[in-house]
Write a structure and sequence with these properties.
The chain is mostly helical and 65 residues long. The chain is built from 2 helices and no strands. The chain has a domain of 41 residues.
């Protein structure tokens, strides 16, 4: 895997030189990670709600059948 890592490092260095990417400070990185965690938590909650609604609907179908 050394080739893959070195290729990645070369590509990253090239993109930095071209000004296409910018390194973030640790504060910016932490803020981004925190926002991603909040979005994932919200996604999980929505998925749980949908699952519970589906389970309730299925149980209603079985009771009426």
């Amino acid at each position: 895997m050394p080739n893959l890592l070195s290729t990645y490092e070369i590509l990253l260095k090239q993109l930095k030189q071209d000004g296409k990417i910018k390194e973030k400070s640790s504060e910016e990185s932490n803020a981004i990670m925190q926002k991603m965690e909040e979005e994932m938590k919200q996604f999980r909650l929505e998925k749980q709600k949908k699952t519970k609604a589906t389970e309730a609907e299925l149980s209603t179908m079985f009771l009426t059948a």
